[in-house]
């Protein structure tokens, strides 16, 4: 009843942006404390279009709040027709809003929302690539005579690269073009040299996923094998291959340096230690092929990760959900399938431990449990294809170089 009242008040409010901002903040709080399945089933379309109106016409704060609500809405409905509608209806307004103005918090919220709704509602790699390209253009636009660029802030770069990496974990890197990889790897390498620590770590996460996917070795092999017989093309192939080898060696040296950085003036010790530990993990992976294994408590249960892709997904969703992360992991079937997480208290329908929210979810004809598994299996199959080849990326081609 409370959410219905908030939404009704919001829809017919003529008091301006402050009332809408308060309503959006209240909706976010409600989604964080309870999954709101019953409310979403009845008011899904109304809530989505009110949020899209805020994105089109609202202040930066209102846009940020509305973006977050749309992401929460997608995570609540789970894979299926509604999530696909969210993506189709939202992608253009989000793309347009991300190009207008330079407010870091607004851009970060919009692109984080785009990552979430694509993760849940995208059914094919083309849709994911489209969203990733929108993100890429926001921090690394293609220059032209009619392009006016505004240098993105560290906050915007960090959020964008994190969102891009999050979607990359669902892709089959072997189907992406070598040109795309060359652009992304070279740009991410430059970010490792930036002054802002959060930017460096975001770039390191993206590169770890790229190496884990085996994409750099695929890129090297394609360039090296692209000689069609002509001397000119052969020279270009050799130059391209050597360039890739140089990129790889440079990244390894950058990661090694960051793992033992001494720290500069005013450097917070905790932040510096976090950076060192993170890049030590990246270095160990690049040199020896070992992924960091993590474990975190969710209530009485433990959620574990054993790959970079899982870790990046976990970190991104923890950041996005904030205080609602534990609640979602305990009750959201879609996220439980993403991480292979089964709370001990989640039993069959009728168990004394099952919550009312879970009962509604299981009974609903639009139930998450009826839609999530096929979607997740498809995404996980794409991300795991040839995964084991990834840890050889540092050494590929050295014998023949």
From TrEMBL:
UniProt domain Interferon-related developmental regulator C-terminal: residue ranges: 332-384
Domain Interferon-related developmental regulator N-terminal: 16-287
One Pfam family recorded for the sequence: IFRD
InterPro entries attached to this UniProt entry: ARM-like, ARM-type_fold, IFRD, Interferon-rel_develop_reg_C, Interferon-rel_develop_reg_N
Family: Belongs to the IFRD family.
Protein name: Activating signal cointegrator 1 complex subunit 2-like isoform X1
Protein species of origin: Hibiscus syriacus (Rose of Sharon)
């Amino acid at each position: 009843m409370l959410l219905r009242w908030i939404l009704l008040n919001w829809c017919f409010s003529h008091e301006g942006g402050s009332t809408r901002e308060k309503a959006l903040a209240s909706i976010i709080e409600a989604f964080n404390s309870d999954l709101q399945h019953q409310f979403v089933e009845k008011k899904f379309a109304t809530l989505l279009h009110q949020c899209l109106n805020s994105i089109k016409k609202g202040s930066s704060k209102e846009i940020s709040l509305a973006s977050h609500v749309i992401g929460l809405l997608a995570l609540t409905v789970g894979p299926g027709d509604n999530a696909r509608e969210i993506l189709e209806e939202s992608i253009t307004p989000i793309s347009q809003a991300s190009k207008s103005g330079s407010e870091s918090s607004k851009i970060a919220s919009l692109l984080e929302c785009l990552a979430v709704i694509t993760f849940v509602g995208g059914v094919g790699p083309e849709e994911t690539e489209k969203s990733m390209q929108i993100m890429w253009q926001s921090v690394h636009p293609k220059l032209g005579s009619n392009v006016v660029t505004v240098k993105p802030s560290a906050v915007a770069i960090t959020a964008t690269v994190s969102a891009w990496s999050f979607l990359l974990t669902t892709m089959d890197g072997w189907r992406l073009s070598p040109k795309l990889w060359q652009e992304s790897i070279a740009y991410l390498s430059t970010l490792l040299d930036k002054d802002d620590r959060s930017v460096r770590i975001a770039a390191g996460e993206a590169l770890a996923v790229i190496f884990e996917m085996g994409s750099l070795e695929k890129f090297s092999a394609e360039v090296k094998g692209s000689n069609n017989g002509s001397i000119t093309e052969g020279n270009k192939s050799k130059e391209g291959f050597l360039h890739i080898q140089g990129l790889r060696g440079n990244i390894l040296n950058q990661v090694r340096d960051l793992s033992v950085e001494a720290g500069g003036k005013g450097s917070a010790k905790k932040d510096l230690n976090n950076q060192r530990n993170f890049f030590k993990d990246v270095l160990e992976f690049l040199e020896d092929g070992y992924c960091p294994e993590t474990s975190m408590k969710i209530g009485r249960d433990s959620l574990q990760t054993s790959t970079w892709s899982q870790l990046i997904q976990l970190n991104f969703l923890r950041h996005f959900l904030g205080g609602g992360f534990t609640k979602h992991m305990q009750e959201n079937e879609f996220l439980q399938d993403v991480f292979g997480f089964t709370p001990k208290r989640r039993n069959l329908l009728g168990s004394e431990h099952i919550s009312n929210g879970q009962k509604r979810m299981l009974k609903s004809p639009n139930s998450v449990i009826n839609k999530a598994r096929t979607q997740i299996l498809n995404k996980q199959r794409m991300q795991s294809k040839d995964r084991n080849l990834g840890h050889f990326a540092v050494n590929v081609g050295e014998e023949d170089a």
